[in-house]
Predict the structure of Carbohydrate sulfotransferase.
Amino acid sequence: MASIRSPKFILAFVAGFALLVILNHNGGNINIDLASGTSNETDTSNLPYKFEKNGRCQGDERHRCIPPLHVFEKRFRAAPKYKINVCAIEKNLSTIMTAIMCFLFDEKKFSDKNRNLNEEMFHQRFCRTRNEATSIDHLERKFKTNATDWLHLAIVREPIERFVSGFVDKCVIEQVWIENGKLCNMCRKNITCFAERQYKRMVIHSNGGKLNNFDDRHFFPQSWRCDFSAHFRRFTFLQYKNEHTEPFLQTLYTHLESRNVSNSTIEIINKQLHDGKTRHATVGLSERDIYERQVRSDPYILQYIIWMYYYDFVLFGFPLPEVPAQKVQIKIV
Ligand SMILES: *[C@@H]1O[C@H](CO)[C@@H](O)[C@H](O)[C@H]1NC(C)=O
Ligand SMILES: *[C@@H]1O[C@H](CO)[C@@H](O)[C@H](O)[C@H]1NC(C)=O
Ligand SMILES: *[C@@H]1O[C@H](CO)[C@@H](O)[C@H](O)[C@H]1NC(C)=O
Ligand SMILES: *[C@@H]1O[C@H](CO)[C@@H](O)[C@H](O)[C@H]1NC(C)=O
Ligand SMILES: *[C@@H]1O[C@H](CO)[C@@H](O)[C@H](O)[C@H]1NC(C)=O
Ligand SMILES: *[C@@H]1O[C@H](CO)[C@@H](O)[C@H](O)[C@H]1NC(C)=O
């Protein structure tokens, strides 16, 4: 973690502030240029989409919205041979990506040991920290490289889906609050209560409070991760959606090919990922649907979602949710 006085923290703060100012002054006609007045590392000019006018988090509402690009947890997995660096934010994907990157880090050893990517996902013993870095600077030092011509991939998730999925996995299915009453913000299975309290934790963190618990790591904004505050411009974003693992993997393979990862290596990865038991729990599916419908039909929860994740929607190119004028009764069929 960067300390409050560290240049990164200050940069993140300045960048966030500049972004807010720019957004506000354009009156919703968003044209983010983080570079102006901050750092040349942090602008969004390489984003593949245009920002749409949406009216949220401007004017009076601006102060309610959690600012982007704070410094929070970050960890990278590198394959120096291919100059690929991956930051995976979401837990499960991070497990898959850790296995893939470990394989690319040391293909030969991995194969010699008859290691299986799928097993590796659950027993991450092989690469350990050998291919990890905690910042881009660390990556450059550790692998004696210049990260300028690396491919930096960040895997990002639709904010509502991420929020609901995380909540349902931890608080509804696993019920981690049974063991530790403080988890799930002491809300048990109440997602409204959870959103309110998680929002408050973000406000505290934005104001310099030192928070970092289990809930925070799962629910704090994605724009706070991956060293984005300093290196946003360098990243290529891969969007991940539930039940769309295949298109995600295909896109990933295209990126690997662009770095000259051989087809046979990609085939090994693909085969291994599909060989193992299906790791994607289907148990949670209907629960997830129910909670997602509840969230999307409830203007009160959606308001908190937008306040928490506005900049995740904007920076990573996900459309803001439609907010119904009043709570819609959901029918569970
Ligand atoms: C950013 O780039 C501009 C022009 O390319 C340069 O004048 C300026 O000094 C750079 N700023 C920083 C902080 O590197
Ligand atoms: C890395 O490479 C870029 C572009 O080639 C160059 O501008 C930069 O100074 C290099 N950085 C270091 C630390 O050598
Ligand atoms: C859930 O939490 C909200 C907000 O804290 C509260 O108003 C509501 O009564 C709770 N619902 C249940 C079923 O406990
Ligand atoms: C991939 O291989 C081609 C042909 O050998 C080469 O021109 C290109 O620079 C390589 N790309 C990378 C990223 O190594
Ligand atoms: C690898 O696969 C891609 C698409 O499947 C194909 O276009 C490419 O020619 C293949 N490259 C080699 C070296 O076989
Ligand atoms: C993540 O993994 C856990 C445990 O393996 C599983 O219960 C959960 O459903 C998974 N979540 C997603 C979104 O795939």
